Amino acid sequence: MKKYLKILQQCPLFSQIDTENLLRMLTCLGARIEMFDKKYTIIAEGNPAKYIGIVLTGSVQVMRIDYYGNRSILAEAEAGELFGEDFACAEVSAIPVTIIANEPSTVMLIDCSHVLHTCTNNCGFHQQLIFNLMKDLASKTIAFHQKAEITAKRTTREKLMSYLLFQAKKTGSHSFDIPFDRQELADYLEVDRSGLSAEISKLRREGILKSEKNHFVLL
Known about the structure:
Blueprint: H1 5-10, H2 19-28, E1 32-36, E2 41-43, E3 51-57, E4 59-65, E5 71-78, E6 82-83, H3 85-90, E7 98-101, E8 105-111, H4 112-116, H5 126-151, H6 156-171, E9 175-177, H7 182-189, H8 193-205, E10 209-212, E11 215-218
Antiparallel strand pairs: 1-8, 2-7, 3-6, 3-8, 4-5, 4-7, 9-11, 10-11
């Protein structure tokens, strides 16, 4: 656990909890660490929604996969970020999404029931933990609405520009990296990859942006 202490201290779930209490808490919560290869399924759709995940190294993607195998990326979590907590807190019988390792990744899994229900030790930091979890859920709700606003646009061009303008505002710069390759960006925007690539090329020719792989510059 100590190996990942610096990352855990950056995790919003453990905000305002000092190092000594954090180490005690992880033992109390029965936290376990697992490693996954790239594209390995961490939690499959239909499994019980019971775990809160924390990315320690690498990154994971939360996605929906339809009957025909089409993917829609709902969110990505990087080191220090949470995943699966919304479904676990809702106590749904089966998780409606699939969570995969986007690259070789190490994650911490915590049974959500250990977070929502105080233990017999009556740990003083537990109330702070629950407060942090509620704050994180509120933040995820905002992010969900932002994605819905982007994907609600009518055309691929409008969806792409809406997303890029949001990223520029988020980073405070007209030059930024996005966490997706072309196929992943298409899956996130819920558009066809070839149409997306054509639109990016058109925007380049029009002098609206520059791009190289996952780096964009808005002109």
